[in-house]
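Tokens for chain A. Residues wanted.
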């Protein structure tokens, strides 16, 4: 018996959820000895890879970090507090706006970004290693197409509840 397209889509969603949970769990396990949580890792990666922040010494406003992480500014403050306490970021005043705070990665923060990247690469390789490179590329293309279409449709819908996945 052949599955209907909606059954296949639901099964695909289930498999993706399972994959994400396993990858996240393994990544958390490997970052735990370094004292980095997934939320902190996302913030560090966002700071390192945001336009204008790709090199040491570049800064980002705390409010921009919150927007990029899709979290409330207060939550971003909590994340940055922990990163600052760990010596991974520093707060600096914004020369253009005294009320604003800018965040900069420290040398230890850049080292943590490298470590996070290495762990992410290792875990992804372990999980997707058995999948052929051409199938990996096909899966990546399919997910990008689905995400782009979903995002476009979401922009056309009337404002409702925020998309928690974004």
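Reply:
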């Amino acid at each position: 018996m052949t599955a209907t397209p909606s059954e296949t889509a639901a099964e695909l969603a289930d498999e993706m959820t399972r994959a994400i949970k396993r990858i996240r769990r393994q990544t958390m396990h490997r970052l735990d000895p370094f004292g980095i949580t997934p939320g902190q890792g996302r913030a560090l990666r966002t700071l390192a890879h945001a336009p204008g922040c790709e090199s040491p010494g570049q800064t980002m406003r705390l409010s921009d970090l919150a927007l990029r992480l899709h979290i409330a500014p207060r939550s971003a403050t909590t994340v940055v507090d922990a990163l600052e306490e760990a010596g991974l970021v520093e707060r600096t005043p914004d020369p253009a706006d005294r009320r604003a705070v800018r965040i900069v990665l420290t040398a230890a923060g850049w080292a943590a970004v490298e470590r996070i990247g290495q762990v992410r690469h290792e875990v992804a390789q372990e999980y997707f290693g058995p999948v052929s490179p051409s199938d990996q590329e096909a899966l990546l293309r399919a997910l990008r197409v689905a995400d782009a279409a979903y995002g476009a449709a979401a922009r056309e819908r009337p404002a409702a509840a925020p998309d928690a996945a974004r």
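The mean pLDDT is 88. The two ends are 36 Å apart (CA to CA).
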